[in-house]
Amino acid sequence: MSTEKAKASEIFGWSMFDFANSSYTTVIITVVYATVFPKLIVGDERLGNLLWSATLSASYALVVLTAPLFGAIMDFSGAKKRFLMASWLLTVVATAALGLAGPGQIVLAMALLLVSNFGFASGESFASSFLPDLGPPDALGRISGMAWGLGYFGGLLSTAAVLFGLGPASADNLGAVRLIGPVTAAFFFLGALPTFALLRERGVAQVLPPGESYVSVGLARIRQSIRDVGAFRDLLVFLGSLFFSQAGLSIVIAFAFIYGDQIIRWQPNTMMMMFVITQLTAAGGAFLFGFIQDRIGARNAYALTMVLWIVAATLIYATPQLTTFLNGALGTAFLQERVFLAVGALAGTGLGAAQSSGRALVGLFAPPQKAGEIFGLWGVIGKLAAIFGLLGLGVLQAVLGLQTAILFCAVLFAAALVVVWFVDEARGRAIARTWVDAPPSDVVAAGPASNR
Questions:
Q1: Any residues with CB less than 8 A from the CB of 426 and at least 6 apart, and which?
Q2: pLDDT digits (tens, 9 = 90+) for 284-302
């Protein structure tokens, strides 16, 4: 882990990858192409939703299978930047090619979506593995928060370019709809250029032993890490907490706008207002909690975001009742969609804060020589959590209805809060700082004073 803060230009370059790749997750996965695929490509919303979920799940499964191996190879070969560039170009090319898939070309669209999302999700882990190199532990919260906050502005700008530049995503505007992929790809390509111009590769390539390949060495490193797993007790406990929080966040990201449409019954202009509000408050939350984290500790800041999310998830469920209560108590005539906007601002703040602080804490617990491998594991946990959260909500929704099922999020965030209380941040940071080629048993056995 670095003891000195990297140059401002390098931190800016790294942050620009968050700015650039947010175009993909916002335009393609969340707001625009997510509606184009079932309506225009498949032509049957129910079947389209099923195929959409299946394709994303398949891409996440590929990440789960490959991320630890890629991370181990990156660490051994000192090639994090090359892996990041490969994932970036794969995502850009496959996203641009989405413009080739028109109505009825379902298999082509699914294949391009699978490849592009695999590249994007892999790149998230590759980019995050640079974080421990960019500053001392006490600065990682601010660095991660700045980058994550900048990412929300990237999502806002790219989505605005698509929505206002290309017009409605409808069958009578098909020529413009075909440009959604190419425009998003261009934004991602251009936005990430500063990353590759300014970000340094600090890894040093090791010499392959005779008769070995990078794959065999990578698999050997994974086996060694499994044997060493007990040394990273606080990282493992935190990843358990992160599993629950990421499961809850995946539900919010995937269902917030569906909830607004089906439960709140909002108007189109309210939906647009919610998008803008959540992007801006998420950016603000990431910036704010970056500073808070460096003052009260990463674990405590993360725990605070879980409290925030328990409140937000409960208010999302209770928005209709809260609206009725406010109108009765204050003699007002608030529409519930307006109250939902206020709740959305709170949720947006928690969204940016939780994701940024979680990434920073993983960075604090990751020795630089194992950063790629550990952030690969971070990516795996996130994808497994998304599958668990979405499937869990799907079952509960079928039994209880969407409004009641959304309380599942509050349960998940509460579980994350309980688990993270068993993380000893000081001990985890000491292990990362002193790690060499074998577990630092003296640090593990004694450990520094607890921060609890």
A1: 447, 448, 449, 450, 451
A2: 887 787 778 778 888 898 9
Tell me whether residue 209 is in a domain.
no
The domain tally of the chain equals: 1
Residue 124's domain is classified under what CATH number? 1.20.1250.20
Tokens of 449: 């004073």
pLDDT tens, 367-411? 877 776 777 777 778 888 988 887 787 778 778 887 888 899 999
Q: Is residue 250 part of a domain?
A: yes
Q: Which residues, 6+ apart, have CB-to-CB distance to 88 below 8 Å?
A: 17, 21, 119, 123, 188, 189, 192, 196
Give the residue carrying structure tokens 């300014």: 198
- Both tokens assigned to 140: 């990682």
For residue 226, give the 3-state DSSP assignment: helix
101 torsion bin: left (phi>0), alpha (psi -120 to 50), beta (else): beta
3-state helix, strand, coil in the chain (%, to 5): 85, 0, 15
201 and 78 in contact (C-beta within 8 Å)? yes
pLDDT in tens, 175-206: 899 999 999 999 999 999 999 999 988 877 77
* pTM for this model (two decimals): 0.75
Q: Label residues 149-171 b or e (16+ Cβ within 10 Å = b).
A: bbbbbbbbbbbebbbeebeebee
Position 206 in a domain: no
The span from the CA of 84 to the CA of 242, in Å, is: 23
Q: How far apart are CA 334 and CA 62, in angstroms?
A: 46
326, with CB counted inside 10 A (0-12, 13-18, 19+), is middle
CB contact at 8 A, 65 and 214: no
